[in-house]
Amino acid sequence: MVSWSEGSSSSWDNDSVTSQLPRTIPCYEWSGIAHELSSRCMRLEPCLRQVAFQSTNIGRRFLACAKEKAEEKCYYLEWIDCEWSVAMQFCIGQLWSMHDKENEDRITDNLKLGEENFKLVGEKRRMEEELRFFKLDFAKMMADKEEAISQLGSARLAISDLKEELEKKKLADGSSTNLHQVLRAKAEKKRDQLVLERDQMKEEKKKLEQFISDTMKQNHGYKDKVKKLKEICDEF
Q1: In what residue span(s) does the GRF-type domain sit (predicted)?
Q2: What secondary structure, in 3-state letters, does the chain show?
Q3: Residue pLDDT, tens place only, 176-218
């Protein structure tokens, strides 16, 4: 049975019927329907015991309408405990301010951390995209190198076939000096042209090998960046 103190307030005497009830916190000592009390809500039904958890009313017991649905509540409110002293209300207000400030700081820190993580993820994706393009370019260069080597082999084979053909023609028509000279001049011209093409291909091959070497060195740099970025992401 609850005893009423002189400082306790009634919803009828102090016009405590409001459109909004304070937030509450579970309390095993003060809960459930107060059937044993004479207090009744505006629907003339037993009230629900509750403990406030809001602003300077935190910890104060009160009685309210027991209906669960918001549209059925009559918003009856009857305080059981007196208001806290001015000093206590000031302390409670300061504690709530500190609590709100801490929550705001935590939210701000989380937002900053989220932005930093978003930037890191964006940078990681950009580097992965660049690495993907690099791999494609490198594969293309390797294919071009193989094609250049194949062309060089074909040129050597053509020179060999030409020498063999000249030898056959020389044996077949040893008496035809003029024809031999014409064929020889033609063969030498063709040979010089092939040698020139071969030298050009050698130069192109050297440039390609140098480019591949530089690209491989740059690839190591990208791998180091990706590795460092992965370590940063793992820390979060």
Answers
A1: 41-83
A2: CCCCCCCCCCCCCCCCCCCCCCCECCCCCCCCECCCCCCECCCCCECEEEEECCHHHCCCEEEECCCCCHHHCCCCEEECCCCCCHHHHHHHHHHHHHHHHHHHHHHHHHHHHHHHHHHHHHHHHHHHHHHHHHHHHHHHHHHHHHHHHHHHHHHHHHHHHHHHHHHHHHHHCCCCHHHHHHHHHHHHHHHHHHHHHHHHHHHHHHHHHHHHHHHHHHHHHHHHHHHHHHHHHHHC
A3: 566 667 777 888 888 888 888 888 887 887 887 777 777 777 7
